[in-house]
Amino acid sequence: MKLPVHRWFRYSAGFSAEWTKFLIAANSSKKTKILDPFAGSGTTLVSSNEMDVTSFGYETHPFVNRIAKVKLNHNPNIKKLTKLFNHVITDKSKSRFLYENQPELLRKCYTEDTLKELVNFKYRFDTINDGSIESELVWLIITSILRITSHVGTAQWQYVLPNKTKTNKQTPQFAMEKKFNEIVQDLEFFQNKNIKELGQIKNHDARKIDNELKNKIDMVITSPPYPNNFDYADSTRLEMIFWGEISGWSELQSKVRTFLIRSCSQHTAAERLKLPDLLSQKEISPIQENLEEVCFELERVRKDHGGKKTYHTMIAAYYLDLAKTLRSLRHSLKEGGKMCFVIGDSAPYGVYAPADQWIGKLAIAAGFNNWEFEKTRDRNIKWKNRKHTVPLKEGRLWIYG
Ligand SMILES: C[S@@+](CC[C@H](N)C(=O)[O-])C[C@H]1O[C@@H](n2cnc3c(N)ncnc32)[C@H](O)[C@@H]1O
């Protein structure tokens, strides 16, 4: 998070920008084309730009896709950006603000004065928003200060915890100026180095075939969602409510989750999925026996847990979605290409699901030649208050085609 442009937004990334650059340097030439099918905030694509290599990314979370798009423009007009930013921060125009009328989550996260200031920034942003990259950067600046200006528990890109307080809160004015200066400094750095905008982010679902990229890709570098119940939709609830893109929690399903890999139980509960329907899909036949065993066990043990989470359908839907993703990637990757998936396994309710083995098997069934797993760290071994004691691991799954 110290690197230029990468530091504009802290996101649940799964890998470091330095590592992606290292990987790209070791595996590419000028003609190489890289794909990140779960691009998130665009780490792989920004790194590819820095290495002068063409790249593509898919990101179906509308809000995260917008962030990645902004980060992939290195040549905005800094004079225009400064003018727009100064208007938002110094203009005297104000929105008609009534604290009581603000959404509940915002009232829980901000004092009246702070929220008033933030809402005024949004109001003035609406008056200068011309869809240009410069106004998109002002949008990013306002978005990126929403957590640091809140006095409650809002670790970046985690769920909001209104009952926790934080000490390192910044004032909106200070946070805006700090972020603006950082962005201008990074843009000047990229422009001086003449870094080209070779990366392209698409709003394409990784599970679907992309005919535009058929046989075009030399290497895939990615970190898919893990089947660990992290809710990517909920992690942007504060920002999306602030910008009026959703009115509350319930809209997260229709406006965000529905486009994503099913990696959290809220998603599969909302879809009211039936286990037999999922397990009978042909795409998961290579792991069906083991998957069935795990899912039936999850269905059995959920009755003993208060939350009765739908982990049984979550695990089945997750591997079905990854099977589909691997088939679409086989279509895009050239013969002889390779893929690096940063993955982690999971054990919901203490029932272990071996991600490396299962994704590896699904990859072979999708038409890849072989795979190997390189462990980078152990997980779930340190904490005393963990929900289960199954040791987990994280690492790189290399798939060769
Ligand atoms: C672990 S994050 C990747 C973060 C990324 N490495 C970065 O640098 O920001 C996984 C991403 O996959 C996205 N995603 C989930 N389902 C998807 C799908 N079906 N197609 C494309 N992207 C998807 C999520 O929204 C999330 O941003």
Molecular structure report:
Helices cover 42% and strands 14% of the residues. The chain has a seven-stranded mixed sheet. Strands 3-4 form a two-stranded antiparallel sheet. The chain contains 15 helices and nine strands. It has helices at 17-27, 43-50, 62-71, 78-90, 104-109, 112-128, 133-144, 172-192, 237-242, 251-255, 265-270, 275-279, 288-301, 311-332, 355-365, and strands at residues 33-36, 54-58, 152-153, 161-165, 199-202, 217-222, 333-344, 370-379, 392-400. The protein is of the alpha/beta class. It is globular, with a radius of gyration of 22 Å. The two termini are 33 Å apart. It folds into two domains: 6-200, no CATH class; 257-400, no CATH class. Helix 4 (78-90) packs across helix 6 (112-128). Bound molecules: S-adenosylmethionine. S-adenosylmethionine binds next to loops.
Key structural traits:
401 residues, alpha/beta, seven-stranded mixed β-sheet, two-stranded antiparallel sheet, 9 strands
Query: How many domains make up the coordinates?
Result: 2
Name every ligand kind in the structure: S-adenosylmethionine
What can be said about the biggest beta sheet? 7 strands, mixed
List low-pLDDT spans. none
- The coarse silhouette is globular
The side-by-side strand order for the widest beta sheet comes to: 5-2-1-6-7-9-8
- Assign the structural class, choosing from mainly alpha, mainly beta, alpha/beta, alpha+beta, or little secondary structure: alpha/beta
- Rg from alpha-carbon coordinates: 22 Å
Q: How many beta-strand segments?
A: 9
Number of helices: 15
